[in-house]
Hints:
Strands 1, 2, 3, 4, 5, 6, 7, 8, 9, 10, 11, 12 and 13 form a 13-stranded antiparallel β-sheet that branches. This protein has a single domain, classed as Porin.
Amino acid sequence: MIEDLLARGLGADTLTLHETFQGLPGMAHGGSVLAAFDALARRRGLAAPREIAGTYRRKVPLNAALPLAIRASGAGADFSLTDGTQTLVHGWARPAPPLIECVTVPQFPRDGFPLPISNSCFACGVENPLGLQVALRFDAETVWGEYLPREPFRTAEGGLATAALTTLLDETAFWLGALASGESGVTTELRVTLHRTPVRFGERLLVIGQRGRVVQRRDDARYRETEAAVLSADGEALATGRITFVAVRGAAKRLVTGMLSMNPDEVVRRVFPAHMP
């Protein structure tokens, strides 16, 4: 169903993202844009392992037919998503080398604290009927979540929609950055490698990112480089991401108001203590 919804939004030279794919209010979730790029790459015959990337320069509006230019680039493709005058996202897809270095995961986390959820977010919105409805947690070392994919993410062939993988990684990166900075913000540079596709629908997944591997940029303290992985139940790396988070001053204060309407005070306070009313 999610793959069909993405496919219906892909015109000959436009991309329209349904309101289902909301991230922060008024903008598309970064993981959904990458999933659209991946759908186009697969149409061109690009198989796994493959890398899908996007640099987000401006927010991507929902329910708008946005001009999308596609250019062949070697065995992959380059993408340019605009609003007609300005570039919103520049991205690309290309073959990736097989995974050689194992993904190191600390002892499997079981406790920790819940991260805030929302109403409409494609990743964590409990009232988004076609969303992931994932609930992430964190402790001193990790951000993680166990996830059993919901029916909308089953493809016609019985696999798992790519949007589940890209969105899990993007959402984990957001919280890694927010916890490191104490501020809300956006993810701006997304690079996701899909190591095995299709992933069989029904596999229980673990998404995890290590807080100790979040690196602040020396030239601009607002930016945090993050790493995250989606693993199968037996520890196989299905997808990995290197995603940049940028803190936006004052964003948490605006976000907290909505979060407090549906999360206990202590859940929000653990993440954004400086912005509580």
